[in-house]
């Protein structure tokens, strides 16, 4: 099978990687305690069963006795403890350490306040893992499907160090293992014969191609060189709907496309109204109808639709018409001292991609037309862009967040003041963090969602991020590919697919 995969992976180390392209490969080569099924819903993985204590604090997982690594060594409870301790170890400097913070002592370990052997995970025996949480966590099992909770091979890491993910060195426990990695060319994965469910895996070889230009990717698909694409060119969507509807997939996705504002720098640091002005000047309907064309939904809040029982929040001006918004935004800029003789100047960072470029040009045009803002565009390749993002070397940047699990906290956690580099704006607000903390300790689902909604209201009042649209997901999927099921998380493990010739 040949899969378009968007970009050259930053890393295949689950503790290091942060992007979606990496996760699409990792979901094939690793398996956590639980794993997404073909429809994206939770299924048992390495754990064949589990029990939860009455107070919701203790999870006891029974691991499959036949679980082994691809090198034949047994996969035990101690492997998960090693992997998770490594994940939260400050020496690893993982941007995703916070995912495991629901485990007791994990946050303190990440912050250097405790040694990593204090992580509250215990190997009762080789096939029994006992995990104690700091508070009842409604989404804990969902969270364990995230790549940061995958087991990693201690034997390979200690032998090869940072090179452990290279072909010949890597040891995996999923349906596939890596055989070749040609930078900017392809990654080749082959079926892992020692995978616990290898008999049901029908595709023997998978190629992942890092094609960043979606137009090029579509040409390769139409030429029969790819079975699936990572995305499609936005301007081609109407044509694809008309002419290739049987192979064009378009469905809701648990993600938000947004611009992050660096609130550690002036002029945005001390002026939330200025941040609102940039957000108010965007005509989201035009962006969706004329540029993205994928049936996306205008975003006036941070958490996407799709969470059962959660009431979506919106900015205070969401109900006003575009003309009124622009007039209010102009007044904000004037009050801040910006006018034709002294225009607000903004540098906008985006990662190299035709779709992101078109959106950036359109938004820069709106800011210029409606507010007189002068915007300079800066594009960087994915790895360079990630470094600029993490080091806050930008004024405004294009970004997106795809939920790690279907829960509002997967979005709201990202803007906590103590999250570190992954925080896309350098944002920090104690009221916001306190509401999130209270929600983490709340057992009642309705009360918990109410607290999370309060946090989102605080966030939208401060506006460190500009929500632009809620995603739909587009892929081309060859009619020879069987078993593909659209789902909110866009998870499509190769182990559930087959290719008919």
From TrEMBL:
Give the location in the cell: Periplasm
Domain of life of the native organism? Bacteria
Q: Which Pfam families match?
A: SBP_bac_5
Q: Does the keyword Mitochondrion apply?
A: no
Q: What is its main location?
A: periplasm
An example GO biological process term is: peptide transport
> CDD domains this protein is in?
PBP2_OppA (cd08504)
Q: Which InterPro entries match?
A: Peptide/Ni-bd (IPR030678), SBP_5 (IPR039424), SBP_5_dom (IPR000914)
Which is one Gene Ontology cellular component term of this protein? Answer: ATP-binding cassette (ABC) transporter complex
Q: Which GO terms describe its molecular function?
A: peptide transmembrane transporter activity
* Annotated keywords: Signal, Transport
User: Can the keyword Signal be found in this entry's annotation?
Assistant: yes
- Solute-binding protein family domain location: 42-417
Regarding protein family, the annotation reads:
Belongs to the bacterial solute-binding protein 5 family.
Q: What is this protein called?
A: ABC transporter substrate-binding protein
Q: Which organism is it from?
A: Skermanella aerolata
């Amino acid at each position: 099978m040949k899969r378009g995969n968007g970009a050259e992976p930053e890393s295949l180390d689950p503790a290091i990687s942060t992007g979606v392209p990496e996760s699409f490969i990792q979901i094939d080569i690793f398996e956590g305690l639980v794993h997404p099924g073909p429809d994206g819903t939770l299924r048992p993985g390495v754990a064949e069963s589990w029990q939860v204590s009455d107070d919701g604090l203790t999870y006891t997982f029974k691991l499959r006795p036949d679980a082994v690594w691809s090198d034949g060594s047994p996969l035990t409870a101690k492997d998960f403890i090693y992997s998770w301790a490594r994940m939260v170890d400050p020496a690893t400097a993982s941007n995703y350490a916070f995912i495991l913070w629901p485990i007791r002592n994990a946050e303190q370990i990440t912050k250097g306040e405790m040694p990593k052997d204090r992580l509250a995970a215990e190997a009762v025996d080789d096939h029994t893992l006992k995990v104690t949480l700091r508070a009842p966590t409604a989404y804990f099992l969902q969270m364990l499907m995230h790549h940061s909770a995958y087991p990693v091979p201690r034997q390979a890491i200690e032998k090869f160090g940072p090179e452990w993910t290279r072909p010949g060195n890597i040891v995996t426990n999923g349906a596939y293992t890596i055989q070749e990695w040609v930078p900017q060319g392809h990654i080749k994965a082959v079926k892992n014969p020692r995978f616990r469910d290898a008999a049901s895996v029908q595709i023997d070889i998978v190629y992942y191609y890092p094609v960043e230009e979606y137009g090029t990717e579509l040409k390769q698909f139409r030429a029969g060189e790819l079975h699936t694409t990572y995305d499609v060119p936005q301007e081609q969507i109407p044509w694809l709907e008309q002419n290739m509807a049987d192979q064009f997939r378009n469905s809701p996705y648990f993600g938000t496309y947004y611009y992050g504002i660096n609130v550690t720098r002036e002029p945005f640091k001390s002026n939330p109204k200025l941040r609102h002005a940039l957000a108010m000047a965007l005509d989201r309907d035009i962006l969706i109808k004329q540029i993205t064309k994928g049936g996306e939904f205008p975003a006036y809040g941070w958490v996407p639709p799709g969470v059962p029982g959660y009431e979506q929040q919106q900015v205070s001006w969401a109900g006003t018409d575009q003309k009124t918004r622009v007039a209010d935004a102009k007044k904000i800029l004037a009050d801040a001292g910006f006018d034709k003789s002294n225009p607000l100047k903004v540098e906008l960072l985006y990662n190299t991609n035709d779709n992101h470029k078109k959106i950036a040009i359109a938004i820069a045009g709106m800011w210029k037309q409606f507010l007189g803002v002068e915007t300079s565009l800066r594009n960087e390749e994915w790895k360079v862009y990630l470094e600029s993002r993490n080091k806050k070397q930008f004024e405004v940047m294009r970004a997106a967040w795809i939920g790690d699990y279907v829960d509002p906290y997967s979005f709201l956690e990202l803007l906590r003041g103590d999250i570190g580099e992954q925080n896309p704006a350098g944002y920090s607000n104690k009221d916001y963090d306190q509401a999130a903390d209270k929600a983490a300790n709340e057992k009642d689902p309705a009360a918990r969602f109410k607290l999370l909604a309060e946090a989102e209201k605080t966030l939208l009042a401060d506006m460190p991020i500009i929500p632009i649209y809620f995603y739909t997901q587009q892929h081309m999927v060859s009619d020879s590919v069987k078993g593909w099921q659209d789902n909110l998380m866009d998870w499509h493990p190769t182990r559930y697919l087959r290719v008919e010739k």
